[in-house]
Amino acid sequence: MANPSHTAPDPVSANTAVPTLQYQSSFASYRAAVDEEATPDARWISANQEVTGGGHSMHGMHDMQTSSPAPMQMNMQAHEGHEMGGH
C-alpha cells in the first residue's frame, strides 16, 4: 500500500526539485586493441572467429540431411487443384 503522506512531485511546477545529472563518458569502458601490430584485416578476421566460435561456420553444410520434402515437391503440393495458367 502506498504511503498517503508522500506526494509525488508536480511535473509542471518550475520549483520541483530534479535529480542532478551525472556525466558518464562513452569511452569509459573502452578497451584498446591488444595487438597493436596486427593489420585491420587480421583483427577483423580474429574478431569474427571469436564471435562465431572459430573456423568456417557454414562450410560442410552440404553433408547435412533433411527430413522435409524437396522445395519443388512442397511447391507442387501447395498448388494441387489450382490452375497454374498465366495471365
Question: What do you see in this structure?
Answer:
This protein is mainly α and 87 residues long. Helix content is 24%, strand content 0%. The protein is flat, with a radius of gyration of 31 Å. The protein contains two helices and no strands. The longest helix has 13 residues.
Properties at a glance:
87 residues, mainly alpha, single chain
The biggest beta sheet reads: none
> What percentage of amino acids are in beta strands?
under 5%
Stretches where pLDDT falls below 50 for ≥5 residues? none
What letter string, H or E per element, gives the SSE order? HH
What would you call the structural class?
mainly alpha
Helix coverage percent: 10-25%
Overall mean pLDDT: 75
> How would you classify the quaternary structure?
single chain
Distance linking N and C termini: 69 Å
Bulk shape: flat
Helix and strand arrangement:
Blueprint: H1 40-52, H2 71-78
Short description:
With 87 residues, the chain is mostly helical. The chain is 24% helix and 0% strand. The termini are far apart.
